[in-house]
Amino acid sequence: MLSKSSAASPQGPHGGASAVDAACERASRLIEARAPRHEILGCLVAAAERVAGPRAAVSILVLDLQGLLRNGASPNLPPDYLDAIDRLAPDPAVGTCAAAAATGSVVVTSSFLADDKWNELRHLPLSIGYVGAWSMPIKSPRSGRVLGTFGTYYRDERQPTEDEVAAVTTLAAVAARALERAPSA
Question: For the chain, what is the total number of helices (H) and then of strands (E)?
């Protein structure tokens, strides 16, 4: 179940709605200008982080040609962490991003310690101070195929708010356009 509000509400102190609108406009301009994919995705990640608040980090993972998850934009996650999760295969029984990529559905883990999907990986986010996460698949609007995932890591045990889910839904649609326009980095 998603909580209805938090300090990260789009109308709250983090200014999420305006950040999302501005990021979508900027990313759309970058897509049209054929900017590098990481620049477009980075713009979207920054907006999602603003909505989620200062105790969260957002990551976009992209499915490569072999069907493995690769870093698309994760500016506030350490390189060692990103290296450790690089090339995860979609799997409904692993983590949140791999599970979201495999199922095409939102996956929420309020606590890494309480979720069996994190048995083999929980040490990784816990070692950098994150205790829970959620992930939304990024899907092609034309085919419905999963192109990647939008993942949010939390330093507190919680679920995404309705406002966060709405923001990421909007941002993921723009990310899908970027990934379809520029399928490689």
Answer: 6, 5
